[in-house]
Amino acid sequence: MSKTIYVDNAATTPVSERVLESMLPFFKEEYGNPSSIYSKGRQAKDALDEARQKVATALGCQPEEIFFTSCGTEADNWAVRGAAMHAAKKGKKHIITTSFEHHAILHTVAALEKQGFTATYISPNSEGLITVQDVASAIREDTGIVSIMYANNEIGTILPIAEIGKLCREKGIPFHTDAVQAIGNLPVNVVKDNIDMLSLSAHKINAAKGVGALYIKKGTVIDIFMEGGAQERTRRAGTENVAGIVGLGTAIEYAVGHLEERTAHKLALRDRYIDTVLSTISHSRLNGSRDKRLPGNTNISFEGVEGESLLLMLDMNGICASSGSACTSGSLDPSHVLMSIGLPHEIAHGSLRVTFGDQNTDEDVDAILDVLPKIIERLRSMSPLWEKIVAENR
Ligand code: PLP
Predict the structure, then answer these.
(1) Is the CB of 180 within 6 Å of ligand 1?
(2) Is any atom of ligand 1 closer than 6 Å to the C-beta of 324?
(3) Is there a smaller number of Cβ atoms within 10 Å at the N or the C end of the chain?
(4) Which are the contacts of 332, defined by CB distance < 8 A and separation ≥ 6?
């Protein structure tokens, strides 16, 4: 097969033509440093300001509340560590998060635990959801920050962020959300959603890798993350990735401005794929809620199948997908997200995440639906477990 079918858009997305066009001048003639006072520097500074305005408009906040970072991971690290360190000065050393966050959050919280903080990890239910009551029950006198993702990167479930934000606001606890998968896929508004801090990443919305942003609501005080310069109003030092940030501005303006038609497009692909797979391949199950789910996300487990082999065989057919989070590939442990919703190891291992993006077509879905059942059948025919699974279910 000659054409590559890329359906791993939760891992990253291709840079769109419009984003690339907007970035190119900043690699060529407009190469000034935004901190320089001559005109080339001012041009770059103007471009940063324009991108900051676009990000702010997309989130429903003020441009002064947007801080550019090197990625979503940095934004997550900064928000959680910065808020926790600030709260600790007032004796508040308890952190609330969930057990199925991205590792950018989980590893940051684990590092803080080693430094004397305590943490409560809320477990999602079997649908991959948590409730505002779960958060209410976890809150303590010494809770200094709550960090809960907007939507999960593996199973696509959407959490009740506006309600959780309202609760945290009432309790006076800073609330951060990792919205890396939500921005450009859901209608996010930091004011309506009662959010104090929000992380996003450019490469999930058809812009470049290595660019992110952290929204920090005016009045929310968190410790500085990177020292060494006056950039980002002295709160995040380092010469800005001007081209990357300009691309983020272009991408977020388009993604949010065309949310409705983009969502309808992905929903149609997603739903046809899920319905067909579940109805034609036996012993398959959808992981995560069917309704409260990102428009492009699918995550299906196939009993008697080993995820790595499935990915390799899909790859031989030109199909790029994922068996868990791409960020954790390299590890053969089952995904912490699938374990958190209670899947047994062997079923978690046979999961396939197919995530659709703007560029995918009906023909892509047809091509996957053509080869997937054959691959599953072949893998099951080679599996020592498969006969046992069938016999037990008879
Ligand atoms: N948070 C979530 C939910 C993600 O899905 C990812 C990336 O997959 C990140 C954070 C990290 O973003 P970045 O790749 O920009 O560091």
Answers:
(1) yes
(2) no
(3) C
(4) 308
Q: What is the atom index within ligand 1 of the atom nearest the CA of 104? A: 10
Range in 44-58, 72-86, 291-305, 315-329 the model is least confident about: 315-329
Indicate whether residue 12 lines ligand 1 (CB < 6 A): no
pTM: 0.97
CA dihedral (147, 338, 115, 94) positive or negative: positive
Contacts of 248 (CB under 8 A, 6+ apart): 51, 55, 68, 202, 205, 207, 208, 211, 213
From 18, 15, 28, 57, select the one nearest 250 (Cα to Cα): 18
Q: With 0-12 CB in 10 A as exposed, 13-18 as middle and 19+ as buried, what is 237?
A: middle
Ligand 1 atom with minimal separation from the 151 CA: 3
Q: What is the DSSP string of 334-346?
A: PPHHHHHTT--HH
pLDDT at 55: 98
250-284 pLDDT per residue, tens: 999 999 999 999 999 999 999 999 999 999 999 99
Higher pLDDT, 74 or 394: 74
Annotated active-site residue 327? The verdict is: yes
pLDDT over 70 percentage in the chain: 97
Catalytic member of 61, 71, 168, 327:
327
9 within ligand 1 shell (Cβ under 6 A): no
Pocket test for ligand 1, best of 200, 201, 211 (most atoms within 8 A of CB): 201
User: Ligand 1 mean position to 73 CA, how many Å?
Assistant: 6
CB-CB contact of 299 with 351 (8 Å): yes
Distance from C-alpha of 392 to C-alpha of 388, rounded to nearest angstrom = 6
Find out whether the beta carbon of 134 lies less than 6 Å from any atom of ligand 1: no
Place of tokens 């004796």: 91
How large is the C-alpha radius of gyration of the chain? 22
Q: Are 198 and 206 in contact (CB under 8 A)?
A: no
Interatomic CA distance for residues 48 and 195, integer angstroms: 24
